[in-house]
Structures are given as structure tokens and as C-alpha cells.
Amino acid sequence: MNQPEFDQAFARDFETLLAWRRDVRHFRPDPVAAELVEHLLDLTTLAPSVGNAQPWRFVSVDDPARRAAIIANFEAANAAALSNYEGEKAQLYAQLKLAGLRQAPRHFAVFCDEATDQGAGLGRMTMPETLRYSAVLAIHTLWLAARVQGLGLGWVSIIDPAAATASLDVPSGWRFVAYLCLGYPEADHLEPELQRRGWQAREARCREVLQR
Amino acid sequence: MNQPEFDQAFARDFETLLAWRRDVRHFRPDPVAAELVEHLLDLTTLAPSVGNAQPWRFVSVDDPARRAAIIANFEAANAAALSNYEGEKAQLYAQLKLAGLRQAPRHFAVFCDEATDQGAGLGRMTMPETLRYSAVLAIHTLWLAARVQGLGLGWVSIIDPAAATASLDVPSGWRFVAYLCLGYPEADHLEPELQRRGWQAREARCREVLQR
Questions:
Q1: Residue B132 included in any domain
Q2: In this structure, is residue B175 part of a structural domain?
Q3: What is the reported pTM?
């Protein structure tokens, strides 16, 4: 198979994809076709991983009782987080509807299988966290692939990972990495919600490159 | 600005990009145009981040003495790793030229600014590691964007992070996340090098989805 070359039109559209990918919090209730979700999950297997260990483990959370446990987990963590902000900032924070947990038709918990023998430990002796980082790379792959199909993904990080792990009854050795909401977005925005709502604008520091 | 829609041709090419992205270890010595590198670094700022904190910090490593320190760091970590493998596996491991450190025209260390006040701590109270995960998302953005332009990226994880941090004299509060090699690949392969060399094939476990 010959190596592919990507033309300028593709490069331009790819950059549009990066610019329009959003952390989606507001979803339409419309279901997502099961075959489409399966296809997106197939694509996650193409993500990079340390030693080719492929340690990501996706859990589809559909049981109402388990979803309720996750929502309760989020609400408790959110209340604790809120107590750390005062005045206007707290108001803003409270108004930000940070989780599409109630609206999103699909929920996925993502774990890292820390007990996996895949990859034989290659490349992660000095930096074992690279195994978790590999799961993060699979999440980003899903995120972009979903957006290509008009779907939105939201990453809920305001959650107690130990309680979430217990709620989901996963194999021992799996470490909680992320909780994701997936569905069709209510609206598309070029600007991130936290930016539109005055929380955090893009800053120049993330673009400074030290020369060493 | 209207929301973009991505057509089937783009979706197909995007999947080709995911399939052909490789962890590149063998580079041609050809330089990479500075403007192209700047453009790729611009694109990293579009990566998702927790609370929009944008905590990734790229360090361009060009000084020969600093590069030599990183290579010595890699060699020490590699020797230590090698002592953990026996027989055939060790031979294979030794043969794998795991770092393109000597060939790649551009080197980048990636840090996470753990002291940043950007994002005001939003969303990372229960899972502070999501700040590092945000830096990983920026790396994956760079990885894919580089491949669109025919460039290869290699992630060197066999490295002592504390020693690397010390070698590069970065601001305090920056945590070492990754060391990257960037350049034009010697050859393109659809199959990962670790797979071609019999180390680790793709496995079904990374595609199993638990139902909960």
C-alpha cells in the first residue's frame, strides 16, 4: 500500500475540525445509531500507545441506576468544588452547566488497564503514567472522529474517580481516566463555552515556546 | 460563522490519517521549515483542556549540549529497562532503535504548567491529573497535524523525567510530560514498528466494550 499524501483541501478541513471541536455540554436527545458508535470505537484502536499496549478500556454506561450513581457523584464533587469559589466567580461557576449527563444519549467511562501485559511494559519503566496517557490519546481520537460525524463529546472531570470506579464494577487493575458524554450537540460554537461565558479566554502562554 | 459539515471524502481521509499516523523512530535529516513548525504549534493551541487551562508548554531543544544530556538520559534509562528483559525478548528490545533522537531535526520537550492560574482550577479538584492529560491532548493534536503535512513524530518515553527537567532548565512548577522527535520519516508504514518487529500486535482487548 502506498503512503498517503494529504492535499491542501484536506489540511484546511482538518484545521477546521480542530477549531470546531468543542467540549459539548448541551445535547439533543436524538439517539446515535449503534453502528456509528461501533465505528467510532473501532477508530479509537488506531490511537498511539506506549509499547503498543493499547490499555484503553471503554465502558458503555446505560443502566439507569448506574447513570444515577454517576450523576450523584458529579453533584457531590461539583458542590465541593463550588465551595472553593467566592462571589461572582462562584455564581458563574454555578451557572455553568458543566455536565451534559442528563441529556446525552450515550455515556462512556474510560479506564486504563494498569494490569495489562500487552506491550510487555515496554517504554513505561521510568514513566508509568504514559499508560494512562495512552488512554487519553484514544479519547482524543474518539473526540475528533465524533466531530467529523457531527457528534459532540463532553469530558466530565468533576467526579470522584474512586466512587466512579466502584459504581461501574470493572475488573480490578482498571484505573478511572475519564467520563464522557456523547450525542448530537444542541448548537455548534467556534468559541469554547468557558470562553463565551467569560471564564477563561485563550491565553498567549500556551503558545510561548522556550528555546533551550 | 456557520457550523462546518464534514463530507464523506473528508471522513475517509481522516480515517486514513488515523491509520497512517505512526510513532516514527527513523528520520531523514532534511530540515523542517521554521514556518511550518510555527504553524503546527499554532494548531496545538486548539487542543481541549480542563477548564480551558491550556497548560501545555513546549520547549524546543536545539542546543547540542542539552540534546546530548537528553540522549545520555535515554541511554541510561534504556540500559536499565533492558536489564528487565531476558533472552530473545531482550535481543529484540535491544535491536529496536527506539529513539530517533540522533536523526530528528527537531526536538521538543513537553511540560505541564502545574502552577498555572489559567482556568482557575475549574474541573480538576477531584482529578488533578486532568491538567497533565490536557498536555497529552495537545501532543496528539501536534502528532496528527504533523502527519497531515507529511511529517513524523516520535514520542520518547524511555527517559528519566526528573533528570530531563533538570537538563532543560524550565520554570519551577512545570512537570515533564513527554519528549518528542519531529522530522520527515525515512519511510511510511501502515503497520506500527513494534508490530512489524513482532513485539506487540493489535489485540482485541482494546476493542472490547463493557456494558454497564
A1: yes
A2: yes
A3: 0.94
Residues B184-205 have pLDDT tens digits of: 999 877 787 777 777 777 777 8
Secondary structure letter of residue B170 according to DSSP? P
Q: Is residue A203 part of a domain?
A: no
Q: Which CATH number fits the domain that encloses residue B48?
A: 3.40.109.10
Q: Structurally, how many domains does chain B consist of?
A: 1
Interface confidence (ipTM) of the complex: 0.93
Strands B209-211 and A56-60: parallel
- CB–CB of A3 and B23 under 8 A? no
* pLDDT tens-digit readout, B157-178: 999 999 999 999 999 999 999 9
Q: Distance between alpha carbon A92 and the CA centroid of its chain, in Å?
A: 23
DSSP line for chain A? -PPP---HHHHHHHHHHHHH--B---B------HHHHHHHHHHHTTS--GGG---EEEEE---HHHHHHHHHHHHHHHHHHHTT--HHHHHHHHHS----TTT-SEEEEEEEETT--GGGGTT-SS-THHHHHHHHHHHHHHHHHHHHTT-EEEEE--S-HHHHHHHHTPPTTEEEEEEEEEE-BSS--SS-HHHHTTS----GGGG-EEE-
Interface test with B, best of A36, A59, A210 (most B CBs within 10 A): A210
Residues of A in contact with B210 (CB under 8 A): 57-60, 168, 170
Range of the structural domain that residue B70 is part of: 23-185
**Is the residue at B29 inside a domain?**
yes
- Rounded CA gap, B75 and B67, in Å? 12
